[in-house]
Amino acid sequence: MEINPKLFEPLERKEETTSKVLPSLNYWQDAWIRLKKSKLAIAGLIIIIFIGIFSFLGPVFLKSKYFETSLYNAYKSPTLEHPFGTDELGRDVLVRVMYGGRISLAVGFAASLVNLLIGVVYGGLSGYLGGKVDEIMMRIVDILYSLPVLLIVILLMVVLGPGLVNIFIALGISYWTGMARIVRGQILSLKEQEFTLAARMIGATKSQILFRHLIPNTIGPIIVTATFQIPNAIFFESFLSFIGLGVSAPMASWGVLASDGIRAIRAYPYLIFFPAIFICLTMLSFNFLGDGLRDALDPRLRR
Amino acid sequence: MEEILKVTNLTTYFYTQGGIVQAVRGVDFNLKKGEALGIVGESGCGKTVTGLSIMRLISYPPGRIVDGQIEFNKVNLIQLRENNIALIRGDKISMIFQDPMSSLNPVLTIGNQLMEPLIIHKNCTTSQARKRAIELLELVRIRSGSNMLARYPHEFSGGMRQRVMIAMAISCEPEILIADEPTTSLDVTVQAQILDLLKDIKRKINTSIILITHNLAVVAGLCDRVLVFYAGKIVEEALIEDLYAKPLHPYTIGLFKAVPRLDVEKEKKLQTIHGLPPDLISPPKGCAFHPRCDYSMEICAIKEPPYFNFKEFRRVACWLYYGKRDFNS
Questions:
Q1: Contact A201 B90 (CB under 8 A)
Q2: If DSSP codes are grouped into helix, strand and coil, which group holds residue B67?
Q3: B178 close contact with A: CB closer than 8 A
Q4: pTM over 0.80
């Protein structure tokens, strides 16, 4: 380019260029966009949705019922008619895995719901109110925490008889304590921060500060704990059913199926293979999803 | 001008493991409508605690206002219950904090935080509050307001965050704005902008400002009247012109000497006040400044000096002025 005197004329003032306007998104739209970026989390989400549909809608399309026995068909290897084979009473394993999924998923979600409702509020209140209230609330948590869940289930079984209700009550009593402790710890440090003072400065009440300002700041640990506790609860139910304290026949959860399958593992390995695969897939998916959600829901990690 | 705030004998202590920290030890002053009052003093002399006490934001434990009255429009704030004081905070009296980096909630959008006081105090609907929030952002000179509302604090620079804090503090057009070192963590050009902004706001909505700072130049730029704090007490009060014309208390004199000046020779060492700030758990007997004072006398170590008043808004707590009629002699 050639330098000439013309270039040194004053620049003509153009209309002020407006700064580029980024589309404004609300919190959830924004979180969704970030969640989509994590392939593992999306894979997890898809698998969870698939397992959900599989468990809750699957039985509608199948002729066999989970309680239908047929001794002629006992221990059949996977065929077109029985894609997952049949068990020692000739029941279709596929439909039983579907029903098992219903129970396992229900247990998992119930546990995380209890966690979120009781654990977060309890921990939040305890941490924010502090002092003697905190002291008393945390001692109650300690007591609940020190009771072995197994003991609670056995005691409940004595009173109520075996069944799913026991598991729900036991989870309800004990599973939120971990969450309460985590949230309390977070709130304890957050409430000393300047923005809490700033929130008090603008005249926010205690509950507004706790629920609007403090708890959203703990969303990361809350999501991680909740998603880790879903597979935990599923595993716990499987374990209880495995040792015979869970759901009773002919209902079955994945744990029951696995425990049935292990008896015949040498001769008919597919009996444990299918329920085990579903337990593994669910747990992995929840872990991946939880990881992705933590990153997506924390606006500080927004780029 | 009418008086809107009258503080009498404000005493705030902190009960710590090491003992009782006497952060504010009997402070009286008043504030008139539309006036800007500066509070200066070194770190830890009770400036911020005074501000927080007025807002009743001292949390117990460890802090507690042990004595005194804070009358705001004839209402004693100290006797108000927590939910009544919450109605005043952010609406009638609000405060800007030192650190803009940590005073905004990192997980809420700027818009959400700006709208909150309006929704709490003015019963605004979300759309009204949004409209007002955009106006406020324009008032604090953050451009293209509506787009900014969806941003999070970490996307803003320090100066912008401080302006958002100011916008939050003035959103309900408070009668008193307490600015606690609003410019400390900002660079000089931004400092100047923020001070301009405060002046502007003072003019536009006729707010009284209490400016807490340790920067004498900032005080000179904005305030009508100054209180000099030392060890939790007011040691000197003066109109800004008077203070610059003739500081009276040895501590104030020391402060002025410690300001670097362009018009003196470069080789000369900057004068400092020797010694360390006093320990407020057991403040020195007599005048708290006497161990560091160049002019200390026998009486300074024995008896605390009363205030010597020379005219309205001109008082000093120092024995040097005992028996003097006017401060020039």
A1: yes
A2: strand
A3: no
A4: no
